[in-house]
Amino acid sequence: MIKEVGIIANVRKAGVAKVIKDLIGWLDRKGIAVLLDNGLSSLCRESGRKPDNLFPSEELVRRSDLIVALGGDGTILSAARIAGPYATPVLGVNLGSLGFLAQIGPDQLEQGLERTLAGDYRIERRMILKASKGDETFFALNEILIERGASPRLIRIEVNTEEGLINRYMADGLIVSTPTGSTGHSLSAGGPIVHPGMDAIILTPVCPHSLSLRPLILPADTALEVEVESDRPPVMLIADGQKGCDLESGERVAIKKAPHTANLIDLHGKPFYDVLRVRLRWGGSYKG
Questions:
Q1: N or C: lower Cβ tally within 10 Å for the chain?
Q2: Residues identified as active-site
Q3: What pLDDT was estimated at residue 46?
């Protein structure tokens, strides 16, 4: 039973303040407690909400029975990544443009929440990656990117598994992607589209200095060790385009499947291929 709903939002999106105000009013009328992410403090002051409704992101997802993420795919990625360890489900509301992860728009929010409260939905459990460098750990629902940073030169990237060497890349970078992330940065770099219901790891080189280097799909239980070399460090590690760290030449990163998943609420039950056709505009007319 859903008793507390946490709200995470991108405050830079047009119209988000009204959407949050209407959402809070609707939840109040339903007798459901509203918890707001600390990032909404300015909107909280404007709406007159009490400061005790504001929480750091991790505490918010731990306390909530449901997270409503308002924004584009970046906002939903962030919410799902934080909520994953606590198995808190996330309902994505699209205030952006492409919206691969969003289920509904703001005009469908109340209807979507009615169905969610009634239990009329299913959970999509999406694979997450874990990247570790020393004491630092990063989780990614889309991808881990290792790239050359500010250096104009190619970097050398060596990728090994328990079975030995996979490859040595001379490239601008390397994308280690989940199936969810296969329609993101990896796709732009020439990677394959992989159904998000699968568990797999995708290696997609970014501008490799070789015509023979192609993306590679690995079993999800593959544990990777990635070593970087650069004439002009630092190299950058970036998780989902949001979190990351610098890598010095010779440093190694361990990347593997995380022990938890991202739990996304699915209200429509649409086949993934329907989403692809709409979002990527497949099947259009080629007539002049």
A1: C
A2: 73
A3: 66
pLDDT reported for residue 269? 78
pLDDT tens profile 80-117: 999 999 999 999 999 977 678 888 999 999 999 999 99
Count: domains in the chain: 2
Structural domain for 10, as ranges: 4-121+267-279
- How far apart are alpha carbons 92 and 182 in whole angstroms? 19
Q: How many CB atoms lie within 10 A of CB 130?
A: 17
Name the pLDDT band for 223 (thresholds 50, 70, 90). very high
Q: Are 248 and 274 part of one and the same domain?
A: no
Candidates 14, 12, 65; CA nearest to 35 is: 65
In this structure, are residues 64 and 6 in contact, taking their beta carbons and an 8 Å threshold?
yes
Asked if residue 288 is part of any domain, the answer here is: no
Can you give the pTM of this predicted structure? 0.91
- List the CATH number of the domain containing 79: 3.40.50.10330
Q: Are residues 70 and 150 in the same domain?
A: no
Distance CA(218)–CA(234), nearest Å, equals 28
Q: Is the per-residue pLDDT at 258 higher than 70?
A: yes
Query: How far is the C-alpha of 158 from the C-alpha of 219, rounded, in Å?
Result: 18
